[in-house]
Write a structure and sequence with these properties.
Blueprint: H1 2-6, H2 10-25, H3 33-43, H4 47-66, H5 68-97, H6 102-119, H7 122-131, H8 136-144, H9 146-165, H10 167-188, H11 217-220, H12 227-249, H13 251-257, H14 262-290, H15 292-311, H16 319-332, H17 334-347, H18 353-371, H19 373-382, H20 390-421
Helix pairs in contact: 2-7, 2-8, 2-9, 2-10, 3-13, 4-6, 4-18, 4-19, 5-6, 5-10, 7-8, 8-14, 8-17, 9-10, 9-14, 12-18, 12-20, 14-15, 14-16, 15-16, 15-17, 15-20, 17-18
Amino acid sequence: MAEKKKLFHYGYVICAMCLLTIVCSTLFSGGLAIALSAVRKVYSLTGTQTSMLITIRSVTAFVAVIFMTQFYGGLGLRLGMVVGMIVGAVGMFLYSIAGTSMMMYYIASALGGVTYGLCMMLPATLLIKKWFRSNIVTALAVCSAGTGFSGVLFSPIQQIIIDGYGVPAVFQFEAVIFCITAVILFMFVRNSPEECGLEPVGGYDYQDSSSSGKKSVGNAHGIYLGNKSIMLMTLTIVGLGLAASPASAHLALCFNWAGLDPMDVAKATSLSGIALIVGKLTYGAIADRFGSNNAAALYTIIVCLGYVCVVGLLVYPQNIMMILGYLGWGIGGSVCTLAYPVWAMDFSSDEDYPKTLKKFQLAFQLGSMFGSPFPGIIADATGSYCYYYVVPIVFYSLMTIVGLVLSKRLAGMRRKAAISVD
């Protein structure tokens, strides 16, 4: 057994595959902003029409999450992720041939939503939960850093392809990326350690005292939040989705609409990807040390400061405001993909975790679905996307308050349980 522990564990390969899946899935969220900005310009779409594509993606992502249990229960995580990538490839191909056909764009967005709903954080979180007993939050943070890697890798490439070969070419390129990813996932993903005759990273005997990283014996005695608190957190995550997903998806559109140079926007998007990677990798460490809700609060403050800079473009439309806005979103944006999976770990037992995770993901997608049309509507009404970014500042602030209150309540419950045992 001592020799086996020295070997490279296959769980790290699984972590890399989850990261790759999230890199591709992000192409249907923030990664789509640069391409949609070019589509709007070339084919003269209104802000409302462009936002409608994101709304359709959010609706089908919501529906996909509803049927997630049946989908992955029937196919398994490995084949389910492969199918999700193939659906994404078809969606990107339809974007490439859509031209001026809004119906084709709607169908492509619908397929993109299916991929986004099924392949973003859910399979990664479930696989990490199976393959890791130690450092679960850190592994999850590494996987979710795929959103940042996607921005770094694809944002400048997208703009170069658009400038050199046109809008259809960038979608064709991304369709090929999805196909290659589907093959890689089929080759390397395994549903569980048992399938390979292995133990999880850390071994079956490893006991993590708290998924949030805070050492609390109360959690060892099965102390979790009640149904009312879970419902309050679920409503909070609806607000997170309402603010986070539409705001990030429209950032590049906002900066282009403000009159900034498209290549400067692409470069800044890539910079935000680096910031997002740093934010994701540090989020896990902060959550381990101070608790998941406190980490969410800190990163929410950072992202709100970034959005203040975006609103500031109304009075000072310069690249520095875009860069500060992107950095704030890049670092603070970690809360969008890490908050609710870690909350689900904190607030539920191992047996209830998949159900709680699904509930939180549905809440996030529900918020995204209802929030998606508003940036375009506000832009058409006011002449700028910048006015919209007051909305995420408000909702992120509300989320911070609720998160801290519930964190304090849960810590108090666990302390009382520890004292009664002593």
